[in-house]
Design brief:
The complex is a heterodimer of chains A (about 120) and B (about 130). Chain A is of the alpha/beta class and about 120 residues long. Chain A contains four helices and six strands; from the N terminus they run βαβαβαβββα. In chain A, α2 runs parallel beside α3. Chain A is globular. The two termini of chain A are about 10 Å apart. Chain B has about 130 residues and is of the alpha+beta class. Chain B has a six-stranded mixed sheet with strand order 2-1-6-5-4-3. In chain B, β4 and β5 form a beta hairpin. In chain B, α1 packs antiparallel against α2. The radius of gyration of chain B is 14 Å and the shape is globular. In chain B, about 25% of the residues are buried. The chains are: A alpha/beta (about 120), B alpha+beta (about 130). The interface between A and B is medium-sized, with 19 and 17 residues. β6 of chain A pairs parallel with β2 of chain B.
C-alpha cells in the first residue's frame, strides 16, 4: 500500500462513462493510487500537457469516446516523443488485443481484480 | 397461483443484506455473501467477494440511507432469483442513487447465500420512495 499522498503513483483513466470512472477510481484508491480522470482523448491530452513533472505510470484508455476516440488519442500520443515512456492499457469492449501504441488490453466488462493486477504490473 | 413459501425467506434475506450494507457490517456481509459471489454493474466492472468486502472495510462505499424493495422472486431448485429496485444516499456523494437489481441466491446447507448480483443505475427520480 502506498502511504504518502505526495508520493502516490498516478493513473490516468480516460472514459466517457462516469460510472466507470467512479468505480475505477474507488478501486485504484484501495491500492493507494491517485487517479486523474478524462472523459475523452482530447481531455486526456490536455491533462498530460498540464503536468509539469510527475507523469502517470499508466493510462487506462477506452476506445469508443466522443470528441476524440482512443485510437486518435494513441496516434497523437505516440507522435510526441515526450510521452515515449507512457504506457497505455486499453480498456474497451471492442479490442481483445492492444492496438498499436498500447501495451495491453482489458476487455469490458472487466474483472476488478484483473484491472488492479494489470495496473500494479506497470506502476 | 400459490406463492412459493420460500419467498418470505428470500425477502427477509434481501432486507438483511440491505441492512448490513447500510451498516457496513463486514461480519454480516461475509456471512450472507457466498464465497463465489460475483457482482456486476452498468459501470462495466465486476467484482468478487474479497474486493467487495475490502471496498466496504476501507470506507470507499458508505451509505447514509439504503432502501430496497423486492418486486419479484422466482425459484429453480436451490436457486432463487430476486429482482427489485433500490434508492441510496452515499456519504460524500450529493446525488441520490437509484437502481434496479437482480440478486441470485443459492441455498447451501439450508442457508440462503447471495451468489450473484447485477445492478443497473437509473435516473435518481425514477423510483418513488417505498412509502409513496
Amino acid at each position: 500500500m502506498r502511504e504518502r499522498v505526495s508520493e502516490r503513483a498516478v493513473v490516468l483513466v480516460v472514459d466517457d462513462d462516469p460510472d466507470l470512472l467512479e468505480v475505477t477510481e474507488a478501486l485504484l484508491d484501495l491500492r493507494g493510487f491517485a487517479v486523474l480522470r478524462a472523459r475523452n482523448g482530447a481531455e486526456a491530452l490536455d491533462i498530460l500537457s498540464s503536468l509539469s513533472s510527475k507523469m502517470p505510470c499508466v493510462v487506462l484508455l477506452d476506445l469508443m469516446m466522443p470528441v476524440m476516440n482512443g485510437w486518435d488519442f494513441l496516434r497523437r500520443l505516440r507522435g510526441n516523443s515526450s510521452y515515449d515512456q507512457l504506457r497505455v492499457v486499453v480498456l474497451s469492449a471492442v479490442a481483445d488485443d492492444p492496438p498499436e501504441g498500447a501495451v495491453s488490453a482489458l476487455v469490458k466488462p472487466v474483472d476488478a481484480q484483473k484491472l488492479l493486477d494489470t495496473v500494479e504490473q506497470y506502476c | 397461483m400459490r406463492t412459493d413459501p420460500r419467498r418470505s425467506d428470500i425477502e427477509l434475506m434481501e432486507q438483511r443484506e440491505a441492512a448490513a450494507m447500510l451498516a457496513a457490517d463486514i461480519t454480516a456481509l461475509d456471512a450472507i455473501w457466498d464465497d463465489q459471489l460475483l457482482a456486476y454493474s452498468t459501470a462495466n466492472v465486476y467484482a468478487r467477494k474479497p474486493i467487495l468486502l475490502e471496498i466496504i472495510r476501507n470506507g470507499r462505499l458508505r451509505l447514509r440511507s439504503h432502501q430496497r424493495r423486492t418486486i419479484e422472486v422466482t425459484f429453480e431448485g436451490p436457486i432463487a432469483i430476486a429482482i427489485g429496485n433500490e434508492r441510496s444516499d452515499m456519504i460524500g456523494v450529493a446525488e441520490r442513487l437509484a437502481c434496479s437489481y437482480m440478486n441470485v441466491w443459492v441455498q447451501r446447507s439450508g442457508e440462503w447465500k447471495l451468489l450473484a448480483r447485477y445492478v443497473g443505475r437509473l435516473p435518481a427520480d425514477t423510483i418513488p420512495p417505498p412509502s409513496a
